Amino acid sequence: MPANLPDPAPLPAASALGRRERMLLAAVAAILALVLLWMRGGLNPAGQLEQLARQSPELPVALADGRPTLVEFYADWCEACRTMAPAMVRLEQQHRGSLDVVMLNVDNPRWQGEMERYAVNGIPQLELFDAAGQAVGRSIGARSGGELESLVGALLSDTTLPQLAGVGATSRLDSEDDQGAAPAMANPRSHG
Predict the structure, then answer these.
(1) Which is catalytic among the residues 46, 49, 71, 78?
(2) Does the predicted TM-score (pTM) go above 0.90?
């Protein structure tokens, strides 16, 4: 090329288009990252469990306020508990004012008495109470959103609990067995 000719100008449309594509790709990536973060419960994977626990009424208040109550014994490290958390959040939001959702963390020594009273030996464990505060059933193990809805539906309509594996009605037992000793309880923290 002769030295006295000017350099050819860059194609503005091509470089602007490339910059626009990069900006769009970065925006889409940022939106996807935020959606994923939101779906996982925020920066903390146990975020939804903590959110429910903070909103949770005290157990004696819930059992006395004339609404059915669902109590979940959980732990932040429990994968099944974290998997159930989005469905539990939805239930609490959909039925706020007609159902109490009480969250009790088995790693908090404050709930030791309740863990013994309800013979918690694995998590997640749900205790189900009618509007009068009477125990009507128990669910042990992870539950799908549909299963949780059917349990809550039975509580709200005051009907028999659905026939699901790991769900059973409860009955009143004396505090001591025939030999005069309270039954032994396994530590829920030993299940991982």
Answers:
(1) 78
(2) no
Cβ(70)–Cβ(128) below 8 Å? yes
Residue 81 is among the residues annotated as catalytic for this protein: yes
Domain residue limits at 55: 47-172+182-190
Residue the block writes with tokens 């903590």: 50
Is the same domain home to 76 and 168? Answer: yes
Q: Quick one: pLDDT band at residue 3, thresholds 50, 70, 90?
A: low
User: Residue 100: exposed, middle, or buried by beta-carbon count in 10 A (0-12, 13-18, 19+)?
Assistant: buried
DSSP string, 162-178: P--TTEE------SS-T
CA distance 82 to 87: 10
pLDDT tens sequence across 111-146:
999 999 999 989 999 999 999 999 999 999 999 999
Is residue 122 exposed (0-12), middle (13-18) or buried (19+ Cβ within 10 Å)?
A: middle
Q: Which of 52, 62, 81, 154 is catalytic?
A: 81
What pLDDT shows up at residue 75?
Answer: 94
Domain annotation covers residue 2? no
